[in-house]
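Take a record:
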Amino acid sequence: MKANFLTEEQKDIIKKQHRAIKNKKIADRLKAILLLNDGYTYEQVAHILLLDETTIRNYIKRYREKGIEGLIEDNYHQTSI
């Protein structure tokens, strides 16, 4: 992945959202995008965030398809037993 794919404005928006987010999973998504933008590889980002590479690739895919809204939406649905 090519580094510096975010504009300064996009980085600022992601950082602002990160500061406001309480959900760790969503915060990790935002951090992953910022780290990839800084030139870290998928493998490095996965290692830093204690996630797997496939998850990191899914985060960047979500970002490309839906923007920051795609990263901050929580699709987790708890099922009743």
Observations:
- Residues 8-72 form one domain.
